[in-house]
Amino acid sequence: SSEDEVDVLLHGTPDQKRKLIRECLTGESESSSDDEFQKEMEAELNTTMRTMEGKWKSPEMGTSSSTGQTGPATTSKYYDDIYFDSDSEDEDKIVTQDVRKNRRHQQRRILSNDELLYDPEEDSRDQEWVDSQRRGYRNQRRVPLQQRTKPSAVPNSDAVLNCPACMTTLCLDCQRHESYKTQYRAMFVMNCVVNKEEILKYRKKPKKRTKKMKHSKETTSIQSNEEEEEVYHPVLCTECSTEVAVMDKDEVFHFFNVLASHC
């Protein structure tokens, strides 16, 4: 009857509940299920029910049932008391050891990343990745793997340079100009492309000449003017083609149009 079924669902054992659910789904009782296919279906149903019952149990119920067991599996599910220690003598006098123990099991369970909504170790992994990238832009790539006994120190950079238009990272290791604070120079860059077809020429500041140099020949003056011209190639961002720097003949990059994140 329906009353018996309700009573089984409320107060019955897990085996009785599974039998009742099996009868409701298949329409047959346990005594009539002699077929091999029916037995396979029953086994699969039992497995599904056990899995569902395990999901229905809350984390507190699951941990409370294993309090009698000793081992690292039970102690690692809770934060250590030192993690929440406030170093307050007044609190130590008021709060007893029993209260601390109960409160630890109730409120100080180690939460997963999904429950915290963030990964506490992600910042450390990101910092390690950035440090490895900065080391890679030094001469370490020229050293054979057999000779790399330990990682080199992270280079001291004045800033991290980014594109002003799309904020793409352009350089992790650079040196700031002594006079012009918004200009930087670097040897190793990323996300940059050099336009070798376009040439930029800049004249150096003329130096003071002596009287002997004024009486020199015209040919020597023309040659000196040619030598005083510096040749550069424009450097563009690979993501948005914004001109961010120039490269000289020594393949040194001079950044002048960047967003600097100072270290």
From TrEMBL:
Bias (Basic residues) ranges: 205-215
GO cellular component terms given for this protein: nucleus
Annotated region described as Disordered, given as residue ranges: 49-76, 205-225
Coiled-coil ranges from the UniProt annotation: none
UniProt feature, compositional bias: Polar residues: 61-76
Alphabetized InterPro entries for the sequence: E2F-assoc_phosphoprotein (IPR019370)
Designated name of the protein: EAPP protein
Species assigned in the record: Mesembrinibis cayennensis
